[in-house]
What does this fold into?
Amino acid sequence: MLEAIANPALLTLVIAPLVVAVVAATIGRRAPVLVARLGAATAAAGLLIAIAGLPTASDHLAAALLLLIFGVSAIAQGFAVRYLAGDSRAPWFTCGASLLTTASTVMASATTMVGLAIGWTAVGLALCLLLATYRELPAARDGVRRTALAFCIGDGALWAAVGLHHLGAEALAPVIAVLIVIAALSRSAQIPFHRWLPATLAAPTPVSALLHAGVVNGGGVLLVKLSVLSTPPAAGIVIAAGTASMAYGAVLMLVRPDIKGALAYSTMAQMGFMMLTCGLGLWAAAVIHLIGHGFYKATLFLSSGTAVARHQRHRTLAPPAGLSRPRRWIIATTAALLPLSALAAGMVLVPTWPEGHAAELALLVFAWVTGAAATWGWLRRQPTIGGAVGATAVLLPAAVAYVAVISAVSRYLAPALPASAVSPATVWAVIAGALAVLGALAALRASPAALGLQRSLYTHAISAGTLHPTGVHR
It folds into this structure.
């Protein structure tokens, strides 16, 4: 069932965290600090083994996923050594985190559909265990209940797909594909399974890091490993759900007043982008995005306390008022052109850039939008030639490095990824539509004439993002 049977290094990656979980469950209360350090050290050792195995791995996708799994686990458990010091629930976290690491390794390295489903279900059980760390809190119990319900629906769909797959009827292929898509959407908190993710914020910060940096990526991993989106109904569902979740999550992220709540909806939006790339057959973009998002989001959650303090300081650093309309247009144009020029330079300077590959170009579009937003914010505070020069000095090396990394990772993953069944014209039509929607939202946000619509949208977004323990809106 698993490559680990014939691979001692991979077998070690599966067994070692499981042993730590058993140790934490048995003697964790007597030696909590030692057990916490053992969990962090085991995950760090697993990360070193995963890095060492990258050049010689037979399955490049599994090797890349193991890098993410053990990297995030090592970071979160290392952080938890001090974060949960003196907390009676520290051994519970070490046990759950180690079980989650083992289950994720099984899922990433599975070579059969049954093995993948076993790892998938085990990941969900381990996450629910972690979310129950502070089960005496009503909010924590509500989060566990919502998560368990969404996961039960998704896991039921996946196991139904496994059963139908083993019947061997080709006529059932579209049904199997849709069932797998339901499982993927539920695990990645996509519409209509989006309510469980923001309900998990009562969990300790290291649990949030493991969840948002790792578990929610499972939907993309499932779709890539099973490559079921050659059927139009399945691809259409993924594209529609991903697009809707990306827009919904982005809007609610902007109105949330709390850091962790904003990060939760940011994850939903990022997973929407990942699902959209899967639906379009941009497999390399999906894998690169989920790995990059995993490390990035783990860092954000673990530094959320610092972010709160920094946000309080920066509230006094408002952008200069009184900019004339022509100057605002100049700033907006410059903010759009500088990242675009930097990325174009990166494509020229990196000799291995794969020209014309839609997956890599989609990632560049994503980077351009992100860079433009960051540059816009910088130039509003530094609306001078010196500010533009400073932005260029940061953007150019960052863009070259970004293009180089995308090129290298795409080439590494290429042998393990399925072929795209979507035409390039469809890909570019969807990307153009997404950019048009983003442009319209930006124009709406910046328009004084649309103040009433902005307030209405803000009110509805705040209401949509408010969860009640009973699950009923009031």
